[in-house]
Amino acid sequence: MHDSKIPRTNIDELTRLNESRPVKVVAVTGGKGGVGKTTISTNLAISIASTGRDVMLVDADLGLANVDVVLGLHTRFHLGHVISGECRLEDAIVTGPHGLQIVPAASGVKRMANLTLAEHAGLIRAFSDLYHRVDVLVIDTAAGLHDSVVTFTQAAHHVLVVVCDEPASITDAYALIKVLSREHGVQRFQILANQTRRHGEGPELFNKIQRVCDRFLNVSLEFAGSVPFDDYLRRAVQRQTAVVEAYPGSISSVALKNLAMKADKWSVPQGARGHLEFFVERMVGARIAPTTVLQ
Ligand SMILES: Nc1ncnc2c1ncn2[C@@H]1O[C@H](COP(=O)(O)OP(=O)(O)OP(=O)(O)O)[C@@H](O)[C@H]1O
Ligand SMILES: [Mg+2]
């Protein structure tokens, strides 16, 4: 347990330090299963961590875990233990490539997919009590429109919607954007085209989604880029490593590193937005010290 190893005074100092450090929170979502949310969030988090930022990756896929499987990590605790009170959030963190801090999800625990709103809120607040240094928090959400997806997405600053050029993925991404915007006040979305197979496919896919959103919804969409379909990515998954580590020169790795550079420039909102959100105390801190805001 960290408490027994780190003297109280140091914890207080670290807590104070963190309070003045705003955290950028990116939720990776997509509506449909299997579009590449875990692949994108894992490689995005590793790529940002490789630039020297302190990054945390949370596997919030509360039904079936997979970040730990994708990275071949052995974990003792997971989010399920945090919620049941068996361990604290910091005890569940495992370290991945480039010092990436990973919070694994519960594997196959049914109750985790049906958390109460109070339990979701408790989980989000637990992040505020962490004394780990974090610049960027990346959240890999579940497929579909579970309560957990809504809560984590609403609590994030940036919502990255992963879409593939197939009707079911487009329909599900649109349904997700519609529900999040109409019922939960999420208005800004970054669209990432994954598994593209030809030049220009990503922007075309983005235009398709933007046209229908412009017509029926009051949202603002941005094109975050394209990640091509890449066999090296599949090979990396089989080796239980991230493609940006195993095959850094592959086409998907280059695209994922570009995405990381873009995401690193996304701003952190100053001040709370009036609903449950991650690190809200640090945003209040950021208002006092605006020079510390990450650009
Ligand atoms: N750009 C890509 N090129 C080739 N294969 C890819 C690409 N992106 C994802 N995949 C493959 O697609 C499959 C699904 O990816 P992933 O597990 O990341 O999706 P997901 O959206 O997280 O799925 P789930 O909804 O089940 O959590 C994996 O086998 C992954 O290796
Ligand atoms: Mg996944």
Strand segment tally = 8
Oligomer: single chain
Distance separating the two termini? 34 Å
- Percentage of residues in strands: 15-25%
- Say which molecules are bound, naming each kind only once: adenosine-5'-triphosphate, magnesium ion
Roughly how much helix do the residues carry, as a percent range?
A: 40-55%
Q: Count of helices?
A: 14
From N to C, what is the helix and strand string?
HHEHEHHHEEHEHEHEHEHHHH
Query: Largest sheet, order of strands side by side?
Result: 3-4-2-5-1-6-7-8
Rg, alpha carbons: 18 Å
Question: How are the SSEs placed, and which strands pair?
Answer:
Elements: H1 2-5, H2 8-19, E1 24-29, H3 37-49, E2 55-60, H4 67-70, H5 79-84, H6 89-92, E3 94-95, E4 101-103, H7 117-128, E5 136-141, H8 147-154, E6 158-163, H9 167-184, E7 188-196, H10 201-216, E8 220-228, H11 231-238, H12 243-246, H13 251-265, H14 280-288
Parallel strand pairs: 1-5, 1-6, 2-4, 2-5, 6-7, 7-8
Antiparallel strand pairs: 3-4
Bound molecules: adenosine-5'-triphosphate and magnesium ion.
Adenosine-5'-triphosphate binds next to helix 3, strand 7 and helix 11.
